[in-house]
Amino acid sequence: MTSQVATPSSRLDNSVESFPAVTLPGPRAFQEELRLWPFDLPFPYRISHEGDRVAAHSREWVQRVGLVSGEAELRRHDRHGMALFACLNYPDAPIEGLNLVGDWVSWWAIWSDFPDDPAFVQEPGRPERFFASLTAVVTSSPEALTRVSDDPHIKAFTDIWRRWCQGMSPQFVARTRKNWVDWFASYRTRTEHRRESRTLDVEEYLSLRDVTGGGPLEMDAAQRVGGYEVQPEFLESPPLKAMRHIAGRVINITQDVQSLAKEEAAGDQHNLVIVLEHEQNLTRENALRQIHERLRGYTDSFLRHEAEIPRFLDTLMVPVEERTSIYRHAADLRQLMRGTVDFCSASGRYH
């Protein structure tokens, strides 16, 4: 296979500095299934060996809370293999944490396509009621959560939310609550765009995808299942804030590429490849090349910011023993990027 050199494209946002041209696979690679076109993320492959236990728990849980009934729905759940998401993204988590993440993403996979379902989108008030009910779970008092909804989606999320907060500080709960509220609001916005057949430009798309992609929640989950918390002042510090933004973009963009065939078949325009093609009048090949160039810029920038953390903490005179959670979170961000690529390549949800 011959290789071609891709020239850097114009930046999609201002978070990544200029970067040199990269060598990408030749044209034959684009004739194969998109999921086989490699993403070279400079982070090692890692996986928990609790996969069978997590899958068994998730299978029992989705049936117990009423999300799945009947053989066809169960086969669909098995084909998606969402337990693998937990094991690839959180390889060091204990079984309780892996089960929590596996349940969360299994629940997410069941309703995340609602905004692409004309029956859901066009029924007056239905999207608003659905997302308002989910939002109410995280904004209600603990006493209110004892009144479990008959809707299996709400019932399942009530269970997830209780477990999500267990053992965490009020400060963490308040922060993650906001992230959940923002996430549900972003799905309402996405549904409205689908109803209106609205076409987004690249900047609009990326800003919305930063939230719909669930990246902030995946990062919250890293702290929850990892048994640590990063103080807000460090989460908002220049190097770590940039790294979290970059990690979210890498997670979302690599997922967009690997889910493109599925989403295109469903008529879903909520995908960076399609947005680039439309806005910049690009061929499929050139849109993919621009994305791969972009990802190399992201990972280069991530590594530069990561290298800045020790000196940044030195300037603040942060005691060495208080730096552990920050370094742990940086490592978890690496894993979330790599785990997403590996999961999307393997899961039946994306092909």
TrEMBL record:
<dbReference type="GO" id="GO:0010333">
    <property type="term" value="F:terpene synthase activity"/>
</dbReference>
<dbReference type="Pfam" id="PF19086">
    <property type="entry name" value="Terpene_syn_C_2"/>
</dbReference>
<keyword id="KW-0456">Lyase</keyword>
<comment type="similarity">
    <text>Belongs to the terpene synthase family.</text>
</comment>
<keyword id="KW-0479">Metal-binding</keyword>
<dbReference type="GO" id="GO:0046872">
    <property type="term" value="F:metal ion binding"/>
</dbReference>
<dbReference type="InterPro" id="IPR008949">
    <property type="entry name" value="Isoprenoid_synthase_dom_sf"/>
</dbReference>
<keyword id="KW-0460">Magnesium</keyword>
<dbReference type="InterPro" id="IPR034686">
    <property type="entry name" value="Terpene_cyclase-like_2"/>
</dbReference>
<protein>
    <recommendedName>
        <fullName>Terpene synthase</fullName>
        <ecNumber>4.2.3.-</ecNumber>
    </recommendedName>
</protein>
